[in-house]
Amino acid sequence: MSELKLMKGNEAVAEAAIRAGADAYFGYPITPQSEVLEYLMSEQPEKRTGMIVLQAESEVAAINMVYGAAGTGKRVMTSSSSPGISLKQEGISYIAGAELPCLIVNVVRGGPGLGTIQPSQADYFQSTKGGGHGDYRLIVLAPASVQEMSDFVKLGFELAFKYRNPVLMLSDGVIGQMMEKVELFDQQPRLDYFDPAWTTTGKTDDRGRNIITSLDLDPYLMEKHNQMLQAKYRKIEELEVRVEEIMIEDAEYIFVAYGSSARISQKAVELARAKGIKAGLLRPKTLFPFPKRIISELADRVKGFLSVEMSAGQMVEDVRLAVNGKVWVEHFGRYGGVVHSPNEVLDALENLIEKK
Questions:
Q1: N or C, where is the chain less crowded by C-beta within 10 Å?
Q2: In terms of Cα–Cα distance, which of 301, 313, 300 is closest to 256?
Q3: Is residue 325 part of a domain?
């Protein structure tokens, strides 16, 4: 049965994986997401559901274990933080190229390089533009609460199998480490996802072996495969956009923010309204697909947009593309692990209004 529990965001991810009927987790510890692996180890889900939990010898090993298990139709996942996700990029590209479902969780920390263990949102480009090689896309979910850290695990697996595509949950050190009350969903059974059309389960009397690979030495066949992938990504863009709109109806200025920046911006909206500034917040729950159409339609009636990010400015590029020059689009952010305050966000908006 569902239950209420006070948990860290990282713990909520781990518990949700068990309850979502995951078959296996392969990972490697790195701050600030180590509690995912620690919680799974302490809960011993193999005794609860039969779920396998394994600390691999490296991030590279972990993502290739995911690749192998996903190829058999199993519900598998991994998690890490920024430098660890970078190490997984080659494997993620292989998994996307082979059209395999899996869930990847990134609890982002400041960079570049080893950086800091403090929170950041500077992995947006890596996550939404294909951090590895080749023309591939991940479905990217952006939780803004501990509740969504739980709910998006279940949603992530559903989308991964619906589209046979990796799903990335892009969190950050604020949400991973913060504690909130979360309503945990009911335990789901572990299912047999065997699909004779693509899973590698060996040769049988009535079918030959399936070979899963992302390799094709014939460029024309590789082009055909890429065209099919791009058609799938366009379908995802058409059907899977998810947003939250806060005080948008009469807004003249729109904050666009995801994750912990959205929480901060929501308070900035309240502060702005108290001063007579008609501000609103558009929070993308999906970063790919990005809410381009929604932002374009808003641009027909508002005066400007402020993209609020814990980065030097990455999502702002997608906001500008969606607005297409109709109104001004600016960026405000702190980076390197510094978290901005609602008052800083409001000050940035007021300064822009004065200048424009």
A1: N
A2: 313
A3: yes
The tokens describing 238, both together, are 């058409």
For residue 107, the SS3 value is: strand
Residue 215 forms part of a structural domain: no
Q: What is the dihedral of CA 321, 323, 326, 327, to 10 degrees?
A: -110
Average pLDDT over residues 299-304: 98
Buried b (16+ CB within 10 A) or exposed e, 261-288: bbbbbbebbebbeeeebbbbbbbbbbbb
CA 350 to chain centre: 31
Q: Which two tokens stand for residue 161?
A: 């199998």
Mean pLDDT, residues 59-63: 98
**pLDDT tens digit string along 235-266?**
999 999 999 999 999 999 999 999 999 999 99
Question: Three-class SS of residue 246?
Answer: strand
Give CA–CA dist 159/118, Å, rounded: 30
E strand spans, the chain: 3-8, 24-27, 52-55, 76-80, 102-108, 139-141, 166-172, 179-184, 243-246, 253-256, 279-284, 286-288, 304-309, 328-333
pTM of the predicted protein model: 0.96
Query: Is the Cβ–Cβ distance between 255 and 298 less than 8 Å?
Result: no
Retrieve residue 27's tokens.
């990972």
pLDDT digits (tens, 9 = 90+) for 19-38: 999 999 999 999 999 999 99
Predicted pLDDT at 210: 86
Question: Which among 162, 24, 165, 201 has a CA at the least distance from the CA of 93?
Answer: 165
CA contacts within 13 A on the Cβ side of 1: 2
Answer yes or no: do 172 and 55 share one domain. yes
Question: Which structural domain range is residue 117 located in?
Answer: 3-201+228-238
Q: What percent of the chain has pLDDT over 90?
A: 92
